[in-house]
Amino acid sequence: MLLTIDVGNTNMVFGLYEGDALRGTFRISTNAERTSDELGMQISQYYHFHGIDRAETSAVIIASVVPQVMYTLINAIRKYLRVQPLVAGRDVAIGIENRYNNPREVGADRLVNAVSAVEQYGKPLIVVDIGTATTFDAIDEHGAYQGGVIFPGIKVAMEALFHKASKLPRVDIERPEKAIGKTTVQSMQSGAVRGYVGALAGIITDIRQELGGQVRVVATGGMGRMMAQYCALIDEVAPNLTLDGLRLIYERNREAFENRQLDGEICLIDVPGDN
Predict the structure, then answer these.
(1) 7-52, pLDDT tens digit by residue?
(2) Degrees (nearest 5) of the Cα angle 54, 58, 64?
(3) For burial by CB atoms within 10 Å, which of 123, 125, 185, 226 has the most?
(4) pTM, to two decimals
(5) Is 109 tagged catalytic?
(6) Catalytic-labelled residue, pool 6, 109, 129, 137
């Protein structure tokens, strides 16, 4: 089996694949203070809960935007799953033409999403990943990654409002039926959701024009499904887009993953470039 890991700013999302089938997913909060043993035991508990033998894991691939947790994560995988994981974009090529001015600036997850979306939905495309930050990624008719937009996530925006405006409470993110709120909570919810949907629509419209017309829009991320209910410009929702992309990159680079299982005593390693 293949274990795919998407390391984001808020959560690490794990997906376990048996062939092309996603057998299950789970999330662990991203925390640089956690030890490799703590993380390894949390991963092991998932396997135990679902009756899966850890020894069945033959390969692990990671996409990460948080370098601070990579040392701990890689050593946890080595110690508890006895597999040497590979990192997309560092150990194996992601496999997409990157036309950013400085290609190294693009987060691996955004490129993995692009690979996955093109495989599933064709091209050209806009991928909207709605999470801690909301990113818009533009893929042209040739399948090349052109760049995109980075925008604060709706939860980040609401937390900022709560902390900076002393009389405003923390509220759940949901859209009231009417735009005009009759309470402070309703007013904040209406502004948050309707304002955010307006921003999504405006940015998508501008990117579509720059890509040259009709472009399919795919949403992913923790808030992707909710926002797709309110934004008519989103055509598809793919909650496992990054995990599916990592599986696809694994399939295209199988030779690099051969003989990655570890036997005997585990020697924890330092990871160049990681803290």
Answers:
(1) 998 899 999 999 999 999 999 999 999 999 999 999 999 999 888 9
(2) 90
(3) 125
(4) 0.88
(5) yes
(6) 109
Q: What is the pLDDT of residues 91-143, one digit of tens each?
A: 999 999 999 999 999 999 999 999 999 999 999 999 999 988 899 999 999 99
Tokens read off for 167: 């009389």
Q: How far apart are CA 94 and CA 253, in angstroms?
A: 9
